[in-house]
Design a protein that fits this description.
Length: 262
């Protein structure tokens, strides 16, 4: 199921990026959000269930850095939707720092021969707990492996809460934004979207905490956290189907309205 959902996410992101991004720039961030979260799901599936040394060697660490883009892409999409401006400023590049730091720290392993990566992959397949002890990045020399792994969902959760706060602030302060029915529609979409993202992130982060505390069996057994995570992922992927107008941006208040009010 995880693989199918992740592949569906990749397909949906491709549709957004190829067919909508040129006209509606906020779709770029939404497409990249679905792409990064889907790549994270593919990474999880390959490591836990594929049993293929080649795939594990190809995926592990080599695409892990993309997980640090989930939060920024979510935030940029919410901000661009609420402001009707997809333009980025130089300071926005700061959001890429966690990804760049991880990428630099993982570069030594990424540049190792593929035959060595296959050996490591076999150890992971033999015992997935090996992931918690092997140092894939130099960050593990500074922090624990647990801190490195948990930094991804924690960062995503932080950006999700930031986006929720931004939406609530917009709703409470923007009295004029309640005039147009289209804005009610957009607010409903963002609320549903962030709700599913919050559910998915919290459940996944809790599963990772339990993995380090109890063992890797948490990911192999069907439990409430896994079911709720799956529900969150399905909700994220299906929600755009019920809010197809989301790509058109947030309707602005017409000047005639303000002239009428005055």
């Amino acid at each position: 199921m995880l693989l199918l959902l992740s592949l569906a996410g990749v397909l949906f992101s491709a549709i957004l990026l190829f067919f909508y991004a040129r006209r509606y720039h906020s779709a770029i961030y939404l497409g990249l959000f679905f792409l990064t979260i889907s790549l994270y799901g593919i990474n999880q599936y390959v490591v836990l269930f594929s049993k293929s040394p080649f795939l594990v060697a190809l995926i592990v660490t080599n695409i892990s850095f993309t997980a640090y883009l989930i939060g920024p892409m979510l935030y940029w999409h919410i901000r661009s939707t609420l402001s009707d401006s997809s333009r980025l400023k130089w300071i926005d590049l700061m959001h890429l720092l966690p990804m760049l730091i991880y990428l630099a720290a993982a570069l030594p392993y990424m540049l190792t021969p593929f035959s060595y990566k296959v050996e490591i992959a076999r150890e992971i397949i033999k015992d997935v707990g090996f992931l918690g002890t092997f140092k894939f990045t130099v960050l593990s020399d500074i922090f624990s492996n647990m801190a490195v792994y948990l930094s991804r969902p924690i960062l995503a959760l932080g950006y999700t809460l930031w986006s929720v706060a931004m939406l609530i602030r917009y709703w409470l302060q923007g009295k004029e934004s309640r005039v147009l029915s289209g804005q009610f529609f957009m607010i409903r979409w963002l609320s549903v979207f962030l709700g599913f993202q919050l559910l998915l992130t919290i459940c996944h982060m809790t599963s990772m905490f339990r993995t380090f505390a109890v063992g890797s069996d948490v990911f192999y057994t069907l439990n409430a956290l896994q079911i709720m995570s799956g529900f969150g992922m399905v909700g994220l992927l299906c929600s755009p189907l019920f809010f197809s107008r989301i790509l058109f941006g947030l309707p602005r208040i017409p000047d005639s309205y303000f002239r009428k009010e005055n």
